[in-house]
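User: quick one - fold this with coenzyme A bound?
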Amino acid sequence: MEKMPYRDGEVRVDMPATVARAGAETTTSDWRQALPVLTGSMVTLRELRLSDAPSLLAMLSTEEVSRFISPPPTTVEGFERFIAWTHRERTAGNYACFAVVPHGMDSVIGIIQVRQLEPGFATAEWGFAIGSGFWGTGVFLDGAKMVVDFAFDVVGAHRLEARAAVANGRGNGALRKIGAVQEGVLRKSFLRNGEYLDQTLWTILDDDWRRSRSVGGAQIH
Ligand SMILES: CC(C)(COP(=O)(O)OP(=O)(O)OC[C@H]1O[C@@H](n2cnc3c(N)ncnc32)[C@H](O)[C@@H]1OP(=O)(O)O)[C@@H](O)C(=O)NCCC(=O)NCCS
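Assistant: Sure. Structure tokens for the protein plus coenzyme A:
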């Protein structure tokens, strides 16, 4: 049984001007035109910009960050292509990728992304990577809670999956801490550096998340 340390009221959502005018009529499709800016207690989440490419290269292409994830681009131009792709996929309604920017900084230190696993986004998968200088600081948890809220409340997903290599201690620890449920092990499911790795499948359900949120961070399972 895990604790989900959510505190009501700590997340503010600043919608783009066109969306803000819609007020209570904001619909779940607005995020396809422009991602909302999400403000937490430690970080702001926003759409990636092409100018974020050098920061992403510095933060995500190190050995320790990329060890258990699909290989990130190795050049600024490669990250620019990735960022342009995130915008196209968001417009198509398949995917959303948030830049993580700590308060007091201008540059991005990581990303948190969500993609649909089936048309209509009912089942989604999320993934994340943060520069190692920011591990253990709380910025991941602050941003992650807002992205889970976004996936359930704005996009309309009902089940959020994550896969983490069994050997990825921090990845699994972070998912356990946010309250995800471990459903099983996907044997030899991830090819990395010529070796097939086992992955842990973690899930969060919308009802569990909302129930936990409404009581201010109780156990969700
Ligand atoms: C995954 C990631 C975003 C998490 O951010 P983080 O700041 O490291 O996460 P946190 O420190 O908040 O949480 C990690 C937890 O795992 C724990 N942990 C660390 N090493 C561990 C290990 N070997 N075994 C088990 N738990 C471990 C930490 O103690 C921490 O829990 P605590 O706060 O209760 O002590 C970050 O580590 C990262 O970017 N890693 C590289 C990319 C990656 O692997 N992405 C995940 C793909 S699933």
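One thing worth noting: The chain is about 30% helix and 30% strand.
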